[in-house]
Amino acid sequence: MHPALPPLPRLSLAQLPTPAMPLRRLLPALLPGAPVPELWVKRDDLTGAALSGNKVRKLELLLAEAVARGADTVITCGGLQSNHCRATALAAAQLGLRSVLLLRTADPTAPPPLEGNVLLDRLAGAELRLVSPAQYRDRASLLSALRQELAQAGRSAYLIPEGGSNALGALAYARCVAELQAQLPPGPWTLCCAVGSGGTLAGLLLGVALAGLPWRVVGFAVCDDRAHFVRIVGELLDEIARRFQLPQAAELARRQDAIELRDHSVGRGYALSRPQELAVLRDACRLEGLVLDPVYTGKALHGLVEELRQDPASLGPRLLFVHTGGLFGLFPRGAELAPLLD
Questions:
Q1: pLDDT for the residue 4
Q2: Rounded CA gap, 195 and 218, in Å?
Q3: What's the angle, vertex CA 9, arms to CA 143 and CA 172, rounded to 5?
Q4: pTM of the entire predicted model
Q5: Order of strands, edge to edge, in the sheet holding 215-221?
Q6: In this model, does residue 301 exceed pLDDT 80?
Q7: Contact, 252 vs 209, CB < 8 A?
Q8: DSSP state for residue 106 in the 8-state scheme
């Protein structure tokens, strides 16, 4: 960990360090004849079994703060099949805390199918509060009202934002950079990750800047557009600078050119897949034994491949794809994948 990063209370929830390894067959197969870059993957899908993915790194810091504050309940939010909400519910159960999840769904009046992450949420004992996409846009107010409701019932709730992406959560990926330094051969690298709430990208940017590494960090959006995430990541970096007295974070926020964000990966929108995205997901599994999810990592890897199809040199000679997990979000999507499996 870089000495500028503050020493923070941290729970041991993730199986760390996760491995980083080369993927030798995928790009040559998908881009035949092209001078493809070297591609590695950081296996943060292996932070645990059910308690898996990039969210677990963030939860180690966030839930340490919740415990220190004497919380008995954790509140958070996300889409119906949210990996973050599932990880939060399971981590809370592990710590003897209750969890309440505010989940976005097209029809809040319909009971959600017990599949994928929703099944795990329920197994972990989470209380699910379903809201429509229109209601979810005002999630900050809904979460605040929910915390007040619990307080009136005598419960002490700790609120975690969408994706665990606040200043504290984002520092988990600034700390991850030291782990990568020990695993990757020296020299220039481009770190690539899916972007859904901005915390992983903000943390990696800060960690690389603090370490003075000759690395780029490129995010592939799974929703919204580039302008949205440049603003979100900049706000997270400013929040880090204020809370933890890290002027380097504020400097990064001011340099908008430092926040590399691709939004051609969004496709049809959040959690909506195109056949070509699912085909890359399938090929990663068949060629490398690498299981991706359709909402985050499948979209991001497809975006990376499409960029390399346009210009094989655009991302540099050595790429590291951060696999942020999401396996359980794959299970409800069998019908969409079936036509690609013959």
A1: 83
A2: 9
A3: 70
A4: 0.96
A5: 20-22, 38-43, 318-323, 189-195, 215-221, 260-262
A6: yes
A7: yes
A8: S
CA–CA distance, 75 with 92 (Å, rounded to integer): 10
- Other CB atoms within a 10 A radius of the CB of residue 224 amount to 18
For residue 195, count other CB atoms closer than 10 A to its CB. 32
C-alpha–C-alpha distance, residues 24 and 191, integer Å: 17
List beta partners, residue 322: 42
When the pLDDT of each residue in the chain is averaged and rounded to a whole number, the result is: 96
Active site annotation includes 82? yes
Q: How far is the C-alpha of 193 from the C-alpha of 219, rounded, in Å?
A: 5
- What mean pLDDT is predicted for residues 12-19? 97
Please tell me the distance from the alpha carbon of residue 138 to that of residue 104, in angstroms, as a whole number.
Answer: 11
Has residue 85 got a pLDDT over 80? Answer: yes
Name the amino acid, one letter, at 59: L
Q: Which strand (E) or helix (H) includes residue 29?
A: helix 26-30
Query: Among the options 52, 82, 99, 165, which is catalytic?
Result: 82
Q: Which two tokens stand for residue 295?
A: 């909402």
Alpha-carbon distance 136 to 265, whole Å? 23
CA atoms of 217 and 233, how far apart (whole Å): 12
Q: What tokens appear for 304 in the block?
A: 């990376």
Report whether 71 contacts 29 (CB < 8 A): no
Distance CA 239, CA 266 (A): 26
Nearest alpha carbon to residue 121 among 102, 143, 147, 95? 102
**What's the pLDDT tens digit per position in 158-211?**
999 999 999 999 999 999 999 999 999 999 999 999 999 999 999 999 999 999
Write the CB contacts of 203 (distance below 8 Å, at least 6 apart in sequence).
169, 170, 171, 172, 173, 174, 175, 176
Per-residue pLDDT, averaged over 116-128, amounts to 97
Predicted confidence band of residue 1 (pLDDT cuts 50, 70, 90): low
Reported as a pLDDT band with limits 50, 70 and 90, residue 299 is very high
